[in-house]
Amino acid sequence: MARYVHAVPNFSEGRRAEVIDEIVGQVRNREGVKLIAHYPDPDFNRTVVEVIGQPGPLKEALLDMAGKSYDLIDMNTQRGDHPRIGAQDSIPVFPLANITLGECVDLAEEIGREVFDRYAVPVYFSGENARCEERRDLDFIRDGQYEGLKEVVHLPERAPDIGPAQLHPTAGATIVSAAASGLVAVNVMLGTTDLAIAKKIAKMVRGPSGGFSTVRSVGLPLTERGVVAVSMNMFDTTATPIYRAYNLIASEAARYGVPVVGTQIVGTLPQEALITCAEYFLRLEQFDRTQIIENHLVDLAEDVRCPPASS
Q: Which of 112, 152, 234, 308 has its CA 20 to 30 A from that of 121?
């Protein structure tokens, strides 16, 4: 059976449409690879790309995308509201179908080595590939961002895992990782421009500072919307459902007299993550997943592809 991997690479450009198109073009129309969508954000000056594919073709597509990012983005002039350390800031991969987490860890190792061998861009490993516990957390690696990391990259605790103890002069560095399941990115927007409030709430929500162990969050301004957001990466929406994190944010915001004005889901998410929210907020009783009619279409399609053998 064919094996499939889910990848969510992020590069540090969300404003120049022609640059974004050229970078994302590296994963379009590739055999064995499907581009799901890409999500430019001008406030963050960052683009999130969602792509799935077979391990070999996907690896080559991700490496080509990284190379184009390095060619077209100069970190010395790049500015944005999202923490970042490089032009191709991160390349996370996740098992999707017929592939194990261990195989994805190996794939991430291959990608990391190739990034340095082909482009001389240093690599930090995170997630399941982290060389120490602190580096499992992206916030630790990104502390100080590109500008701050340049000043301390020579220190053993901040040096890359692959490459010399210095950043590429224009491309910075890239974080490569594997994890058990794809993260769900959620922005809860608050009806205020006071960034301090969003940062205080984000600190309460994220695991390392006492919040949910499977959530990492930061407070960020959404300048074009005229609001701030608690931006979360949710690594396990079964252990920590979206509604639980949302309720905590709404409750804490109410302390400051601030409403929640909207919620954004960036990228894809499991169907189950939304069903659990519906069960909670609608107080559904004895809800059965077979009540979702589209699930029956999936079963019907399977029956059509695999008709029973004639007797």
A: 234
For residue 311, is pLDDT > 50?
no
Kindly state the average pLDDT of the residues 188-204: 97
Token couple for 286: 């004895």
Question: Domain residues for 45?
Answer: 4-178
Amino acid at 263: T
Looking at residue 88, its pLDDT comes to 98
How many degrees, rounded to 5, is the angle at CA 1 between CA 180 and CA 30? 80
Length of the chain: 311
Annotated catalytic, 82?
Answer: yes
Amino acid found at 191: G
Residue 217 · residue 230 · CB < 8 Å: yes
- Examine residue 142 and state whether it is found in any structural domain, yes or no: yes
Residue 300 lies in a domain: no
Phi, psi of 178 (to 5 degrees): -130, 145
**Choice among 38, 82, 154, 168 that is catalytic:** 82
Is residue 293 included in any domain, yes or no?
Answer: no
CATH number for 261: 3.30.70.670
CATH at 173: 3.30.990.10
Is residue 29 domain-resident?
A: yes
- Please, what is the Cα angle at 114 between 30 and 267, to 5 degrees? 50
Two tokens at 191?
A: 């009806």
DSSP secondary structure letters along 170-236: TTB-EEEEE-SS--EEEEEEES---HHHHHHHHHHHBGGGTSBTTEEEEEEEETTTTEEEEEEEES-
Q: Does the predicted model carry a pTM greater than 0.85?
A: no
